[in-house]
Design goal:
This protein is an all-alpha fold. The protein has one domain. It is built from 8 helices and no strands. It has helices spanning about 15-20, 35-40, 45-55, 65-85, 110, 115-145, 150-195, 215-250. Helix 6 (about 115-145) runs antiparallel to helix 7, helix 6 packs parallel to helix 8 and helix 7 runs antiparallel to helix 8. It is elongated and about 70 Å long. The two termini are about 15 Å apart.
Length: about 250
């Protein structure tokens, strides 16, 4: 089963690979086991709730939704969020739910090179993911809670872990736009070094052209967003896999 604990680290293969390729994060091998790390992250109340879930005593709201309906909902949410990231209205022209910021015409170089709009853009996508994936995960848990005792325990366990690790997950994911700020700065500095003593000829309207430093950054940011989406969806995908595996065994 591919169920992964949310918020334990940023060590999702795709996300780590993307960040490492951008040279904004070091890949460090974990020296502690998952059980040891959980022991550090969970307080007494969380541990008691986890014990109850593992022993089948934690209540979970049931639903009449079916396994096929949550599979369809998962596919819809994933596609909608991925399309929102890739269809940015600039690199990929068209109607965008969240339009990629670009330098304003005739903007001074200093203001055009401000990272703030791109930080807000990334955070807007994070809010979108959070708003869509939270209810999806709850719906999938509710379907599991209507199944076998083993699935009911898994649903209860996931509910406890989501709540217990929510703050840690939020803090970890909040570091991603900060890491991207480093990439933004590196690319801009390299661009300035190429210009050398011709900085007065710099034109922000050229930055988003193919091969431009800002266009390159925006592609990188898109890759990180898609990798983050994968991380956020992993627990839901694991729950659905468990549901389908149990169904096939019956």
């Amino acid at each position: 089963m591919a169920y992964g604990l949310p918020g334990t680290s940023l060590n999702s293969a795709r996300l780590v690979r993307v960040l490492a390729n951008l040279a904004v994060a070091d890949v460090v091998e974990a020296k502690q086991s998952l059980a040891e790390r959980l022991g550090q992250w969970l307080d007494f109340t969380d541990a008691m709730a986890l014990f109850s879930a593992l022993n089948g005593n934690a209540p979970v709201t049931k639903t009449k939704a079916s396994d096929s309906s949550v599979q369809g909902e998962f596919a819809r949410v994933r596609t909608t969020l991925a399309d929102s990231i890739t269809m940015d209205g600039v690199l990929n022209p068209g109607r965008a739910r969240i339009k990629l910021p670009t330098p304003a015409p005739n903007a001074p170089v200093e203001s055009a090179a401000d990272f703030s709009p791109y930080h807000r853009y990334y955070q807007a996508h994070q809010r979108d993911m959070n708003a869509a994936i939270g209810p999806l995960r709850a719906n999938v848990r509710a379907v599991l809670a209507s199944g076998s005792p083993a699935l009911q325990r898994l649903a209860a366990l996931d509910a406890v872990l989501e709540q217990a690790l929510a703050t840690r997950e939020r803090n970890l994911l909040a570091t991603l736009p900060l890491l991207l700020a480093k990439r933004f700065g590196h690319l801009y500095k390299a661009h300035q070094e190429v210009l050398g003593d011709r900085l007065d000829l710099d034109d922000p309207e050229m930055w988003m052209r193919p091969g431009g430093w800002l266009a390159m950054y925006c592609r990188d940011m898109q890759a990180v967003l898609l990798a983050e989406l994968e991380v956020r969806l992993q627990p839901v995908a694991g729950l659905i896999e468990a549901l389908l595996t149990r169904k096939n065994e019956v």
